[in-house]
Amino acid sequence: MKTFYYKAYDGAGGKRTGTIEARDRWTADAELREDGLRPYFLHDYQVLKKILQQKQKERRRVIAIVGAAAVALSLVFSVVIVRYAGRERPPNMEDYRRSGLVAGSPSLIAAKTKEEREFGLEIYQVWQSLYPDTISGVEVSKLLMTVYVTRNVRHLSENELEMLASNTVHALQRRFEAGGCTLLVVRDDKTILEVHYNCLTRSTRVKAYR
Length: 210
Fold this sequence. Notes:
Blueprint: E1 2-9, E2 15-22, H1 25-34, E3 38-44, H2 45-85, H3 93-99, E4 109-111, H4 114-130, E5 135-140, E6 144-149, H5 158-176, E7 180-187, E8 190-198, E9 203-208
Parallel strand pairs: 4-5, 6-7
Antiparallel strand pairs: 1-2, 1-3, 5-6, 7-8, 8-9
């Protein structure tokens, strides 16, 4: 006896699924029809199970490859940012906008996905609670975050701003599990602080421009 998985229509036209024990496929089909069902899919359950398991393995392999590619991409992005971090001049926001790295949106939270938007709102609330009226907006992607601040940020000491920015970029990396990520603190369309975190070396690079 073998086990067969079936899909069939019942007498009312509804769909039914299940398994049936029979000597062969033809016997299973006949027994289902005797029960008032009209099978439109009938397959050896064990064979079907092996096919589904093989497809699951292939799907997991594809996901692993895509994940590895995403990590590699984030590392490449990190290397590019680190190279820029060695410059004496701050990142030019206009160049960043032209390249598509940032949108330069004046809105409160700028993000492409719901998860990024929720994270941006969390960061906005943290900054606002610690130092009210110093933050005007946040732009979030999984590798690059831009915090737009007001002129009131001048009341923060250099250590306070660097500590807050470093904690923020660490939170960004933890949330999206990127190989490396960067935070830009921008005031009046000029970058005043740049923080890069590399999770592989667990190193944080801070560059102040104010």
